[in-house]
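Possible regression after last week's pipeline update?

I re-ran a chain I had predicted before the update to compare outputs. Posting the input and the new output here so someone can diff against the archived version. Not blocking, just want to make sure nothing changed silently.
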Amino acid sequence: MSHPQNSHGQTPLRIAILGYGNLGRGVEKAVAKNPDTRLVGVYTRRAPADVKPASGVAVHGAGELLAHKGEIDVLILCGGSKDDLPVQTPEYARHFNVVDSFDTHARIPEHFAHVDAAAQAGKTTALISAGWDPGMFSVNRVMSDALLPDGATYTFWGKGLSQGHSDAIRHVAGVAGGVQYTIPVEAAMDKVRSGVRPQLSTREKHLRECFVVLKPGADAEAVRQAIVTMPNYFSDYDTTVHFISAEELARTHSGMAHGGFVIHSGATSDTARHVIEYRLQLDSNPEFTSSVLVAGARAVHRLHQAGQYGCKTMLDLSPALLSPRSAAQLRAEFL
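New output (post-update):
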């Protein structure tokens, strides 16, 4: 079977998407920005006729994936970390090179073990937990710690819309709709940037701001108390709740901006202190995450061609593996 070539005379990397939500649509846009890649199909658990990709690429039922095994170089899994990826990534890693954005930090070692066993058995290559955190923030935490071992690393998230916390708000009795923003505390970041290595509590690092639409007849104060006292989500933070109309929620809070900072302060002697800072400011959380997934797919394909099977994370990938540019060009223009 022949494949169309791109403008550089290379055969594009054939990428397929499983799941066409915010992340799947982002991968579709990212592929369009990367001339060395080509989207060859969207696979869905919904009725394929109900899914209309902007690119016009063919849509198939998820059950058809194995029948198309020889037509896909890398499968990007665009499901959720809670229920989808723990099952899907090991399942498909037995048959395809795969990339996912699994982001439940505490369960990454367990997820890695399951995916690695499947990929080793299938002689495939898998990349898990690609994105910005985990992902690019992880790389910067490790790099900073390696360069300045006498130091401390701090991660701040926001200002950005938190999908998990927003979902938690919407499950509170009396809430018709709502979103939550994570906001880093400027005073805490200033302390870290000064190089003094402060001990910071959860409450000292981030604020949480909620915008809530009440159901008719709901008790606003009861809803506020249910939110600010919610364990694991809001009780450890200074949380502000604003009540707004459904129209304002739709008009003002439908974006998915996010970002954050990794700041490492360290010393190389008694008189020399250093601060390393990495910042992301993202108009669209899913679109940026998707761009990382597509770069990761490129690395996965190269590793697989080199016979490096099993599971990888962003910590295992060199920048050159992620880049579409040749090693010679990277040395000449980026080194």
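Follow-up from reviewer: compared with the archived run. The chain has two domains: 13-132+286-333, 136-284. Marking as no regression found.
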